[in-house]
Amino acid sequence: QVQLVESGGGLVQAGGSLRLSCAASGRTFSRYAMGWFRQAPGKERDIVAGITSSGATTYYADSVKGRFTISRDNAKNTMYLQMNSLKPEDTAVYYCGAINMGPHPTPQTMTPLGYWGQGTQVTVSS
């Protein structure tokens, strides 16, 4: 089991940047593929980016490709999401979670394992 805590959200103007962190407790973080999800009001929680346990493979939703970068430091039990060129439509609560993730990931195959953080609000003003 793993406990997750997100941080780094906030209010930023369009075109700005934020770096989200997901700190994990326990000794099993390095065993899990991890993902960043986001949920806007009235919408479903969708995956934004995923990374395998080793960090060798990453996935990005088309809406963030080229702007967001997912990474992890297993020695620090931490995952990151660098978000650049932010847009108002990126506004949402961002969650980190453990996921299933194979070598050829798709949104349909990267299913959550049920370990979630509490979320961090990202608001992008126009």
SSE ordering: EEEEEEEEEEE
Portion in helices: under 10%
Note the main sheet.
7 strands, mixed
Quote the beta fraction. over 45%
Unreliable residue runs: none
Principal-axis shape: globular
How confident overall, as mean pLDDT? Answer: 95
* Annotation, overall tally of beta strands: 11
Radius of gyration based on Cα positions: 13 Å
**Oligomeric grouping of the chains:** single chain
Helix run count: 0
The assigned structural class equals mainly beta
Distance between the termini: 40 Å
Task: Chart the SSEs and their pairings.
Layout: E1 3-7, E2 10-13, E3 18-25, E4 33-39, E5 46-51, E6 58-60, E7 68-73, E8 78-83, E9 92-99, E10 112-116, E11 120-125
Parallel strand pairs: 2-11
Antiparallel strand pairs: 1-3, 3-8, 4-5, 4-9, 5-6, 7-8, 9-10, 9-11
Walk me through this protein's architecture.
0% of the residues lie in helices and 51% in strands. It has 126 residues and is an all-beta fold. The strands form two sheets. Strands 2, 4, 5, 6, 9, 10 and 11 form a seven-stranded mixed beta sheet that branches. Strands 1-3-8-7 form a four-stranded antiparallel beta sheet, with no helix packed on it.
